[in-house]
Design a protein that fits this description.
Distance between the termini: 148 Å
Strand order of the largest sheet: 7-9-10-11-20-17-16-13-14
CATH class of the largest domain: Mainly Beta
Number of domains: 2
Helix content: 40-55%
Strand content: 25-35%
CATH topology of the largest domain: Beta-galactosidase, Chain A, domain 5
C-alpha cells in the first residue's frame, strides 16, 4: 500500500469515529425515544387487547405532552421511590408515586409463623385523592411527589415530619405531611393545598383500599372478627363481619373515622374535622391466605386549605386503643347489652390489676376465675340450697303425681303450687341465682376471644392461648369438629358432664331435663373446639372451682334439717307464710286454666 492510499484510509476512519461520537444521542434523548417507543407499543397492545399496566417503579409514566403543560404538569413524570419513616414501633414505607403509605410493619410483633407483621403491602393497597380541577379529575396516584427527606428514623421522645410536594403551578402545590413520634402507633397525616382553594371545583374525595392477609393461626377466626368499623356521630358501628357488605354514610352526621380491622390489628384513618360522606365495602375472598378486602370512599369538606388527619396502625389491645382517644377501644367487641358493661367495668379492670404482678397468663386466668367465684358464691349457695329443698320435697311431689295422675297437668301443677306454698319453697329459687350469673359467664365468651394480651402466650401444652390448641390434627375436615381436636376443649367438656351429673343429683332432676344437661356439653364441644384455648381453660377452671364450692356448701347444708324446716313451715297459719309474686301469679294462672277446662 503506497503512502497516499494509507493516508486516505486513515482519514476515512477518523471521519467515521468522529461522526459516531459527535452524533451520539444524549441520555435525555434516549429516555425520550424510549417513552415514544413504549407509547407506540402500549397503543398497539391496547388495540390488540394485550396491554399490561406500566410499572411506575421501572419506567417513567407515558403522558400526553399537553398534560405536562397543564395542572400538576411537572408532577406527572418521574420515578417511584420509597421513603422510610421509622420509630420504636412502626416502620412505614411511603412511595413518592402518589405520596401514599404503601406498607406498614409493626416491629414488635410477628405473624403466627414468626414472619414480620406487615399490615398491608403496596401491591395490594391503594390510597388516592381525587381532585376536580377545571372540570376534569386529577388522581394523586398518578402524580410523583418530591419528599423533603429521603428517610426518617425518629428516636424515643422525639418527633419529626416529612413533606411530600406535588407542584400544581407557580406558587401552587399539594402537600402531604407525614409526622411521627419516637414511639407509638400513630402516623400524623395532613393534606395541605397551597394556593389551590380556588382551583378545586368540588370537594376532594379519598379512595382507600386494602387487601388484608392472614396473620393468625386460624383464618376462620380472623374472618369472624374482621370487618370495617366507623364512628358516625357518637356511635361506633361495623359492617362485613359475617357477610360481604356495603354501606353509605354521612348523610346527616359526619364520619369521624373508619377502620379496616382484623382480629388483633387495625388500620384506622381519623379525620379531625370528619368526613362529610363515606362509603364502605367489605368482601371476603376465596384466595388462600386472604382474610378480607376493604374499600373506603371518603368525601372531605369542600373549600379547605388543610385537612388534618392521622393514621392508627397497631394492635387491638383495649388499653392501647383507649389512650388514642376517639372511642377507638370500641373496635373490640365486648359483647352486647349488660355483657359489655360487665367486661368494661369489672373484668378488664381486674385483669389489668392482675397483670401488674407480672404473672403468667395461665395463672392470671386462674386468679381471675377464683375472684369471680368468690363474688358469686352467695348466689351459688342460694341456688344450691333451693335445689336441696326441691330434692327433699320430691317424695311428696311423687305422691301427688300418683294421686292426681298425669291426665290433668293443670290440676297437677295446682297441687304442686299448694305444696310449695305450705312448705315455703320457691320452685324458681335455684334458677334465679343461676340466671343472675349468666351475664358474667357469657361476658367471658366475648372477653377471651378478643383479648390481645393472650396472643402468642403459652401455658402448659397450649402454645398460644388466643387460639385453639390442636392436640390432635386430623389432616382433613370432620363435620362438627373441623380438622383438629383441642385437648383443653375436651377437658372442659368432661368437667361439664361431671358437673351436670352432680348437679342432677343435687336438684333431683328427672326425665327430659336430666338428659338435656348431658346433650348441651356435647354441642359445646363442637362449637368451642376452634375457640381460644384461654376461653376453654377458663370454663374448665370454673367447673372445677364449682365442684369445690359445692363440696364446701354440702358440709353446711343438711337434708334432715331442711326437711324439718319444711315440716315446721307447713304447720304455720296461712297468713304467716310468705308467698313470692311468681307463686301468686302462677296460682292465679292455674285457677284460670282449671276454670276453662270442661267439667266431667
Amino acid at each position: 500500500m503506497d503512502r497516499n492510499t494509507f493516508t486516505g484510509f486513515f482519514l476515512i476512519l477518523v471521519i467515521l469515529f468522529g461522526a459516531t461520537y459527535l452524533m451520539k444521542p444524549s441520555e435525555e434523548e434516549i429516555k425520550r425515544e424510549k417513552i415514544v417507543q413504549d407509547s407506540i407499543k402500549h397503543a398497539q397492545e391496547t388495540k390488540l387487547g394485550r396491554a399490561k399496566p406500566v410499572q411506575a417503579a421501572t419506567a417513567p409514566a407515558v403522558v400526553d405532552s399537553n398534560l405536562l403543560k397543564g395542572p400538576f404538569g411537572s408532577a406527572r413524570v418521574g420515578k417511584a421511590q420509597t421513603v422510610v419513616l421509622e420509630n420504636e414501633d412502626l416502620k412505614v414505607n411511603i412511595s413518592t408515586k402518589g405520596g401514599r403509605v404503601e406498607s406498614v410493619e409493626l416491629k414488635k410483633f410477628k405473624t403466627y409463623d414468626q414472619k414480620p407483621l406487615v399490615l398491608f403491602t403496596g401491591e395490594e393497597s391503594n390510597f388516592n385523592l381525587a381532585l376536580k380541577v377545571n372540570g376534569s379529575t386529577v388522581n394523586t396516584r398518578d402524580l410523583f411527589f418530591t419528599p423533603s427527606s429521603p428517610a426518617l428514623k425518629v428516636t424515643q421522645k422525639d418527633s419529626s415530619s416529612v413533606t411530600f410536594t406535588a407542584n400544581y403551578g407557580a406558587n401552587q402545590a399539594l402537600q402531604y405531611v407525614y409526622s411521627l413520634k419516637g414511639e407509638g402507633f400513630k402516623l400524623g397525616f395532613d393534606i395541605i393545598s397551597n394556593g389551590l382553594d380556588q382551583a378545586f371545583t368540588a370537594a376532594p374525595v379519598l379512595n382507600w383500599d386494602a387487601v388484608l392477609r392472614q396473620k393468625e393461626k386460624d383464618i376462620k377466626s380472623e374472618h369472624r372478627y374482621s370487618g370495617a368499623y366507623y364512628q358516625l356521630g357518637e356511635e361506633v358501628e361495623r359492617i362485613g363481619l359475617t357477610k360481604d357488605e356495603k354501606k353509605d354514610l354521612g348523610e346527616e352526621e359526619k364520619v369521624k373515622w373508619v377502620s379496616f380491622k382484623q382480629h388483633f390489628f387495625s388500620n384506622v384513618l381519623i379525620a379531625k374535622d370528619g368526613f362529610d360522606k363515606a362509603s364502605l365495602a367489605v368482601t371476603t375472598s376465596a384466595e388462600p391466605g386472604v382474610v378480607k378486602s376493604f374499600t373506603a370512599t371518603l368525601t372531605l369538606p369542600a373549600k379547605r386549605t388543610s385537612y388534618p388527619m392521622e393514621f392508627y396502625f397497631g394492635p387491638n389491645r383495649y388499653n392501647t386503643l383507649k389512650v388514642q382517644g376517639n372511642n377507638l377501644e370500641k373496635l373490640i367487641d365486648l359483647g352486647w347489652g349488660p355483657l359489655k358493661w360487665v367486661n368494661r367495668f369489672a373484668v378488664i379492670p381486674i385483669f389489668n390489676t392482675l397483670e401488674k404482678f407480672n404473672w403468667g397468663y395461665g395463672l392470671i386466668i386462674l386468679v381471675l376465675t377464683l375472684i369471680l367465684k368468690l363474688v358469686l358464691s352467695p348466689l351459688t349457695y342460694k341456688s344450691y340450697l333451693s335445689m336441696a329443698k326441691m330434692r327433699v320435697l320430691k317424695p311428696e311431689m311423687d305422691e301427688i303425681k300418683t294421686k292426681v295422675g298425669e291426665d290433668n297437668p293443670t290440676l297437677l301443677q295446682q297441687e304442686y303450687l299448694k305444696l310449695y306454698k305450705k312448705a315455703g319453697v320457691n320452685p324458681l329459687g335455684g334458677c334465679i341465682p343461676m340466671l343472675l350469673q349468666m351475664p358474667i359467664v357469657m361476658a367471658f365468651f366475648f372477653f377471651f376471644p378478643n383479648l390481645f394480651e393472650l396472643r402468642g402466650e403459652s401455658f402448659l401444652w397450649m402454645k398460644d392461648l388466643s387460639t385453639y390448641d390442636s392436640f390432635i390434627n386430623f389432616g382433613f375436615e370432620i363435620p362438627f369438629l373441623g380438622d383438629h381436636l383441642s385437648l383443653m376443649c375436651i377437658l372442659m367438656t368432661i368437667s361439664t358432664l361431671i358437673y351436670t351429673y352432680f348437679n342432677n343429683q343435687t336438684s333431683g332432676a328427672t326425665g327430659q331435663m336430666k338428659y338435656i344437661g348431658y346433650i348441651t356439653p356435647i354441642i359445646f364441644l363442637g362449637v368451642l373446639n376452634s375457640y381460644p384455648a384461654g376461653l376453654n381453660y377458663y370454663y374448665f377452671l370454673a367447673n372445677m372451682l364449682t365442684f369445690g364450692q359445692q363440696f364446701l356448701i354440702r358440709q353446711f347444708v343438711n337434708d334432715n334439717k331442711i326437711h324439718a324446716q319444711i315440716q315446721e313451715n307447713k304447720k304455720k297459719p296461712e297468713g304467716e307464710k310468705k308467698q313470692s309474686s311468681f307463686q301468686r301469679r302462677m296460682e292465679e294462672y292455674m285457677r284460670q286454666q282449671q276454670a276453662k277446662q270442661p267439667k266431667k
